[in-house]
Structures are given as C-alpha cells and as structure tokens.
Amino acid sequence: MTAPKILIAFYSRNGSTEALAKAIAEGAEIEGAEVRLRRAREIVPAEVMAKAAGWAEKAADMNAKYPAPTEEDAEWADAIVLGTPTRFGSVASELKAYIDGLGGLWFQGKLNGKVGSVFGSTSSMHGGNESTLLSLYNPMAHLGLIIVPLGYADPVLFQAGTPYGATHVSLQDAVEPNSKELEVARFQGRRVTTVARRLTFALEAFFN
User: Fold this and answer.
1) Which fold has domain 5-207?
2) Cα dihedral value 177, 97, 5, 207, nearest 10
C-alpha cells in the first residue's frame, strides 16, 4: 500500500502557526506519510505589510522555505490539514484565499472523500482559537472532506490543544508553542495519517 499523502497548508506571520505545522508534519512522517508543507501567500500590498514591523522580512523568509499551496497539491493529497492564525475570531484571509481557489476541484468532485483537519494559533487568551477552527470546518464540509477532529483520543489533549485541533496562544508573540502543544500537533499528524491510510486502503480494496 502506498504511503498516505498529507498536504499541510497554513498561513503564519510570526511563526506560531508555522511551528504547529512542522510538528504536525513530524507526526505524519512518523506514521509513514508523504508530506507537503505549504505556506499561503500575502494578499495585501507591500505598503500594508510595511506598517507591521518585520512582516515583510518574515514573510520572505518563510516563503523561501515553503512553496505556495496549489490546486495540484490538494488534488494530490489524501488528507488536507489547514492551519491559520485567528483574525477577529475567524480564518486569516491569506488561507481563505487559497480555500476559495479550490472551486474548480470542488466542481469536479475531486476533493470528495479526502480527510480534512485544522489547527491554529492566536495572540491572546480567548482570542478565538476554537471559533476559528470551527469556522474552517464549514468550507471543509462544502468541499466534501471527511473531517477528523482530535477529540480526547490522546491523554495530552487534557493538557493542551482543543478537541477540534492543535492550538497555541502566543501572548502577543512572547511565547512559542510549548512541549505539550507540539505533542498535540504531532498527535494530530499521526491521527490524520492513520485515518487517511484506512480510507485509502478501503478504497484500494474496493477497486482491486
């Protein structure tokens, strides 16, 4: 059986969501997955980015490390994991623009039956992590993905994260994801890979 193919498409400005994405990738790879890490690109002009200290520089650094997500990535994947910082309790426009660009695949039914999962970060306590993750479930349902939350399927979920997906609170970028939050993210990678493998195996058995 071929290795499950996992797309992790995320947006990160200051590194918190990126750190979770990398940990999810580690967990997926531990379970034998082939992983593509992709960073959504800015959709605002340079003059807007210049108003936030370090934004343009950090974006350039991350864009050098990660390609932009494409339609081909989503079609390739057995599972799509989306990550975002909160923006007023909802998904960042940069990641939403990528999701909105999947309309062609949606129309052709090419995303139906793929696994979907989400993760995110916020700057402040009660800053919208859970509402943001829940808001991402809506487009996943429309795209036909099989949504895989975390529940409390691993004991670490009683210490960090949420039942909806891995999360982090950066306290205005003062703290990085801690060991428990990264453990939740690695568990998410393992869980998504396990479910994707089972679904892929079932489909291969059905058609062979």
Assistant:
1) Rossmann fold (3.40.50)
2) 140
